[in-house]
Amino acid sequence: MASWDDMRVFLAVARAESLSRAAPTLRMDAATVGRRIARLEAGLGAALFVKSPQGYALTDLGVRMRDHAADAEASLTQAVEEARGDQAGLTGQIRIGAPDGAANYLLPQVCAAIAAENPGLEIQVLALPRVVNLSKREADMAITVSPPQAGRLTVQKVSDYRLHLAASKSETIENMDDLKGHRIVGYIPDMIFDKELDYLGDFGADGVQVASNSVAVQVMALRSGAGVGIMHDFALPFAPELKRVLVNELSLTRSFYLVRHVSDRSSDRLNRFAAALNHGLKAEISRLERLVA
Predict the structure, then answer these.
(1) Domains of the chain
(2) Residues 187-204: tens digit of each pLDDT
């Protein structure tokens, strides 16, 4: 019979897909983690992982066990929260995964406000140029630009946001023809991780001459006079050297979604944090967009 300590080790390896990456989380050395996994598999009489030079990949049984173990972990966490009676304020650590546009220009202000009201809370922002994997518990919740279509997840729309072409204030761009001869700043085409971020077709650009997988790098490139590019309206107040151009000719609307693992629905702590995050994001997007309207 597997113990909860066995499940804790199993979950760490399942999420990290590697003994060496799981070891620091467990405060064990990789050899000990490997022995624990081997003992667990021997006790079950079945393989939970397929081992290869690339790491540890879950078998079908391993996937099912991971989901059940994650549910049990969430229930245990909820029980501890209730025992502590943390109703006066949120405590512990909560990690949010987010695309770097939201991570750079929205979450610092929103998280600062939430942290000010909850001194015992540690908030981590995981900014990645890809979709955060909640099933592997890379984060407790994630902000996305498209609602996920698969997985044991709950999805809540947070807010629409707007994007426009932006360029240096020294540039004169009054019509679409004026774009000719300007370099285009945008995403590296083969590293666009969500179709909602593929803006090229919206304004007929042939390609990107100054590219990055990071919104923050794109904004800095625009601020340095590298060209013209699509920019979040909520980021413009942080770039006073830039202006929106061709506002009537090109205006895009996208949305943010708050995504959580379905097993966390019963966690009062995460529910309260998600509500504060949702409210804060809506208010901050609205505030920043009003500054450039």
Answers:
(1) 4-83 (1.10.10.10), 89-159+255-292 (3.40.190.10), 161-252 (3.40.190.10)
(2) 998 888 888 888 877 666
